Predict the structure.
Amino acid sequence: MGVLAFPVHRYRRLRGSAPLRALVRETRLTPADFVYPLFVCPGEGVRVPIDSMPGVCNLSVDLLVEECRNAAALGVPGAILFGIPPRKDPLGSGGYDERGIVQEAIRALKREVPKLLVIADTCLCEYTDHGHCGVIEDGDVHNDKTLALLSRTAVSQARAGADIVAPSDMMDGRVGAIRAALDEAGFESVPILSYAAKYASSFYGPFRDAAQSAPQFGDRKGYQMDPANHREAMREIRADIDEGADMILVKPALPYLDVLWEAKQEFGLPTGAYQVSGEYAMLQAATANGWLETDRAVLESLTCIKRAGADFILTYYALHAARLLA
Ligand code: PBG
């Protein structure tokens, strides 16, 4: 008989009361685990609800500051910003405009809520009129020409005061290019959070509504990863670390916990997971129908993402979950 055998051992003994379960709990969720993704748009007093993400809005800078103040007060350590520019063009120039929407938002947040970490999502798709994450040439995203614009974007974000830059475009070599550009501009202390394993996922649909960034032709399968691949993710991550990534992200989160687990085990770097717009939308839709107990489902999914190895979680539920945990 093994030592763990019944009747000497009874697993139910440690499940009998809430204090007992708390004593032996292996994973504890706290507001310090969350990063809050936010969409910032031009104007003042603007709050535009996003249909496919009930509860999430595009916010003008003044309301963004309020939202971030609330998050910081509850112990949420950081926000990640996505910009909705007033106009888009083929080269995504709104992304690296010194007076661009995200740059303005970063400056306002660092002034008004200095203790909150401001992470800038570094990508062009919110700023290009074709919706792709880089420069189009011969009907495809040109990798190496895109690197220069991403580098420019990251430097302008750092100059505005971003604490961390987070490239999400999936061009090859972008972490190295951005690292070199940041160092060159005197921002050698600004860390890079690389979306190292980012999959071409259907779960980004609602985000593209929010950012009005759906590709106008084709899809992103030529640069984002195939959802079927696991070992390739480890190669992607290793390459990003070699190029200078300080932290990595796995995205989406819940359907990719195997990738998250192995990434953490294998590399041991600070590792985040992004509970993306579609994951949020599914939970909100089930809730709206009365099919799930939202708060339990939200906390369970976030706990499981942490259990699988996430040191932090980008989640649209950051504020909501922080309130539940307060
Ligand atoms: C920009 C970017 C996207 C997301 C984060 N950064 C969209 C995409 O790649 O299409 C998706 C986030 C979400 O779905 O919540 N490239």
